[in-house]
Write a structure and sequence with these properties.
Distance between the termini: 57 Å
Structural class: mainly alpha
Number of helices: 10
Strand content: under 5%
């Protein structure tokens, strides 16, 4: 947000740069600069006012186009076309990676990249998923947080960061506006069941920081008592 008090400190010559045709400033900044120049007694012809209004509108159009492109970048273009490539959706990967860790999430993203022949990103993504899992455990252990902590838990932030990182990788690697159909949920479900089993029989506590194992612990305490 541009403040008028900030632009008011500039000289007329500096403000003139805001209203040039090649101006790269925000529409708000251009409008405020124009108003300040008028307040200081600068006279503009009707044609000049019209030109400045056009500059402001053009900058608004550019910003709107950029915003739409950024929104489309994060949108999933799903289709029912049986001929389209079948990929695991970002929402599926996000849920799996948040609940069960970056390893299963990276496996799903790895398979997506393999299907579109992005082999190097596929390998790097899988490596990231495995590496982040151990880094995450190391960082959380170093923080030495109590297990009964529930509100504003840094563990949730660290786990969520891994999931978000996979989403960023997906957006960066997948072609823009790639139209695809949703892959079967059978493999993600199997993957989730395997992770549930690993979490339940986790004697070393590798998964103890996740929500599901902590829920298991609470249930065990209740059953024992």
């Amino acid at each position: 947000m541009v403040k008028k008090s900030v632009l008011d400190k500039l000289s007329d010559r500096e403000l003139q740069k805001y209203i040039q045709k090649d101006s790269q400033f925000t529409p708000e900044a251009i409008q405020i600069a124009f108003e300040i120049l008028q307040e200081r007694g600068n006279i503009f012809s009707q044609q000049e006012k019209k030109d400045i209004a056009e500059i402001i509108q053009n900058r608004k159009n550019v910003e709107q186009t950029k915003l739409q492109e950024e929104q489309e970048l994060w949108q999933e273009h799903l289709t029912d076309d049986p001929a389209a490539v079948a990929l695991y959706s970002r929402s599926t990967i996000l849920v799996i990676s948040f609940l069960f860790g970056t390893i299963p999430g990276s496996i799903l993203l790895f398979l997506n990249f393999i299907k579109i022949k992005k082999y190097i990103p596929a390998i790097l993504t899988l490596a990231f998923g495995i590496l982040y899992f151990f880094i995450q455990n190391y960082v959380i252990s170093a923080l030495d947080l109590p297990q009964d902590r529930s509100r504003y838990d840094p563990r949730i932030l660290i786990i969520g960061l891994g999931s978000i990182s996979l989403m960023i990788i997906s957006v960066a690697v997948l072609p823009k506006k790639l139209i695809y159909k949703s892959a079967s949920f059978i493999f993600p479900i199997i993957l989730a069941m395997v992770m549930l089993a690993l979490m339940y029989f986790d004697e070393q506590g590798l998964f103890s920081n996740y929500l599901i194992p902590r829920t298991f612990s609470i249930i065990k305490i209740i059953l024992v008592n």
